[in-house]
Amino acid sequence: MDLIWQGIRQAFGLIFGLDAEVWRISLLSLRISGTATFISLLLGVSAGTALALTRFPGRRILVSLVNTGMGLPPVVVGLFVSIFLWRNGPLGFLGLLYTPTAMILAQSVIATPIVTGISLAAIQQLPRKLRLQILALGATRWQMVRLLLREARLPLLAAVMAGFGGVISEVGASIMVGGNIKGSTRVLTTATVMETGRGNFDIAIALSVILLLLTFAVNALLTRIQQAERPR
Amino acid sequence: MSAGAPILEVRGLRIRRGGADLLDLPELSVAQGETLSLIGPNGAGKSTLLLALSGIESPYAGELLFRGARIPAGAAALGYRRRVAMVFQEPLLFDTTVFENVATGLRLRDLPKGEIARRVAESLERFKIGHLASRSARTLSGGEAQRASIARALAVAPEILLLDEPFAALDPPAREALLEDLAHTLRETGTTTVFATHDRTEAQRLADRVAVLDCGRLRQIGTADEVLRRPADTFVAAFVGVENLLPIRLVPAAAGGEFRALLIGVGLSRGDDGHDGVSLEIGGAAPGLTVGSAGLLCVRPEDVEIEVAAAAAAPNRLPGTVVAVVQQGPFLKVSVECGVMIVALISGHLARELAVRPGSPVTVALPLSNLYAIPQG
Fold first, then answer.
1. How many whole angstroms separate alpha carbon B73 and alpha carbon B58?
2. Is residue B271 very low, low, confident or very high in pLDDT (cuts 50, 70, 90)?
3. Are residues B351 and B287 in the same domain?
4. DSSP letter string over B28-81?
5. Is the pLDDT of residue B2 over 50?
6. What residues form DSSP beta bridges with B29?
7. Does A184 contact chain B (CB < 8 Å)?
8. In angstroms, rounded to a whole number, what is the distance separating the alpha carbons of residues A115 and A163?
9. Residue B24 falls within a domain, yes or no?
10. DSSP secondary structure string for all residues of A115-157
11. CATH assignment, A2-227
12. What's the CATH number where B322 sits?
């Protein structure tokens, strides 16, 4: 227990003591996972909405794949992104391996199925007749989609939280495609793994606490947006 | 109202889903300013027809014409769709304020803010929910929510209003009040309305004409009085509440009239033309029925009169005995055995005055103008 308390004290010391390295990796974590979440939102909400509103042969298989993708193991994603970005891989010429961009790419691959699956469920749970009602009010197809998304905004914010939670906490893909390079691709999760490996449990605990606080702060903000704007 | 030029015309409309015909309508037209009520049981095709008329669901065979021009399909129907509004059985309100809900159709049309505020306020006031403007739609009662839904549809000042059983989920007081306000609004605005319901009293209250649908086909169309008192067949008769379908044979009229009906199985003596039964003067008969045809005589229970026993010798009167008296809403439903069972709806006051109770001898009077013969089966 002493070790844990010491870690927590150290965490606050590192935050409020303005430790430059800790602030740097915290902000890098936020930037990489935030960007990946944003990309997954663009792709996932579009794909989820399209899957919810259309019918075509093979749709059910596609939905099953999306649902499976929601539990995609980060190490598997890390492995395949590494292979693609490897010097001799199909995208090796881009020279992205061991860069924050590679980490954003891998995290986007992890978060997109999560956002797609929750968006699909969010749109599908709206009454079917609501679509007819929106069209009957004189909406174009795009206006209808916009109104449906507005109507499903609460579960869609849950999709954002789940997507962000999935990528800010993962370590497998980040370490494989980022390499945990100090000053370049070291983020909170990879740093925690490294410090634990070195036996620096107090620093590892401190980094974990910072990670938890960061996740809490982002989710608290999203929850506030989700719950605050409903009229009484 | 029904005399105006047609604003909507249906020609050879056929809608199939899953290999079955949902709708097969050779012809139907709705006049400018008219309120046409579609009645029929569940699965009759009322909602399917309304969705086709709304321009939302376009895969069909045949033609739909708006002011004489064919309604285009798909995205090209937007111009038409913006001249039509539709209200469903469920209010289908958005998760926002009542004001924003009613403003939705206007915002979709990119109207200026001031214009939107004015029209929303006007529509809310018309349906007596102005005080709910800032309330969340989720906190409304069923009646208030449906008022908001209808206010939303009328805020866009549609040329055609389509209503798909909007009162079906409401309790009787809320339904009655909204029906009254809607009837008033439709009279005031003169909006052409097609209104689906399975409740004939709603149809009677709102409609200039009533169309009876069954299994996707039009069984009859006419004024409410025509459909309720001169049903085309036994299905329509049963659906519109003609509880007395009495077996008859048509016989030549004595003088002036077209037909008389011989009520089969009633009376011990022969009729004055030598046939068994009691002879009745009737108001009309369905096309195709001729002298000698067997048929059914339609009489609505509310058109049957109950008199004291002594009046039985007069024309169109049958002696009988009351076998049951049951309260039905504000009226009493009286079953009288006259050789055939005849059901009458009478007021409690009249029942007390005539001392109508099971076992009482009474005379049943069948007013000529409300007797109509239809084919059997």
1. 6
2. very low
3. yes
4. EEEETT-EEEEE-STTSSHHHHHHHHHTS----EEEEEETTEEPPPGGGGHHHH
5. no
6. B9
7. no
8. 6
9. yes
10. HHHHHHHHHHTS-HHHHHHHHHTT--HHHHHHHHHHHTHHHHH
11. 1.10.3720.10
12. 2.40.50.100
Q: What is the pLDDT of residues A199-228, one digit of tens each?
A: 888 888 888 988 999 999 988 998 888 777
- For residue B19, give every residue at least 6 positions away whose Cβ sits within 8 Å of its Cβ, in sequence order, or none: none
Q: Which of B159, B6, B3 lies closest to B69, judged by CA?
A: B6
Domain spans, chain A: 2-227
Both B195 and B264 in one domain: the answer is no
Residues B227 and B246 in one domain: no
Domain containing residue B178: CATH number: 3.40.50.300
- Kindly report each contact of residues B168-177 with a partner whose C-beta sits within 8 Å and lies 24 or more positions away, as own/partner: B168/B89, B168/B197, B168/B198, B168/B199, B169/B89, B169/B90, B169/B142, B170/B142, B170/B143, B170/B146, B171/B142, B171/B143, B173/B143, B174/B141, B174/B142, B174/B143, B174/B146, B175/B143, B177/B143
- Residue B19 domain-assigned (yes or no): yes
Question: Does B1 map to a domain?
Answer: no
* Residue of chain A minimizing CA distance to B84: A136
Same domain, B85 and B210: yes
- What residues of A are in contact with residue B75 (Cβ under 8 Å)? 140-141
Q: Which of residues 103-132 of A touch B (CB under 8 A)?
A: 127, 129-130, 132
Q: How far is CA B159 from CA B8, B33, B36, B184, B341, in A?
A: 11, 9, 14, 17, 48
Per the structure, the complete domain to which residue B148 belongs is given by 6-232
Q: B207 with B284, same domain?
A: no
User: Chain B: nearest CA to A215, how far in angstroms?
Assistant: 29
Instruction: Flag if B109 and A139 touch (Cβ within 8 Å).
Output: no
Q: pTM score, two decimals?
A: 0.86
- Chain A positions touching B92 (Cβ under 8 A) are 127, 129-130, 133
How many Cα atoms are found within 13 Å in the side-chain-facing hemisphere of A144?
22
- CA angle A140-A141-A145, nearest 5°? 115
Q: How far is B31 from chain A (nearest CA, A)?
A: 21
Nearest to B281 by CA among B252, B264, B260: B260
Quickly list DSSP for A52-93. Answer: HH---TTHHHHHHHHHHHTT--HHHHHHHHHHHHSTTSTTGG
Q: What is the pLDDT of residues B75-128, one digit of tens each?
A: 788 999 999 999 999 999 999 999 999 999 999 999 999 999 999 999 999 999
pLDDT in tens, B13-51: 999 888 888 899 999 999 999 999 999 998 899 999 999
Q: Which residues of chain A have pLDDT under 50?
A: 232
pLDDT number for residue B275: 54
Which chain A residue's Cα is nearest to B92?
A130
Per the CB < 8 A criterion, the answer to whether A202 and A7 are in contact is yes
Strand pairing report for B331-337 and B317-328: antiparallel
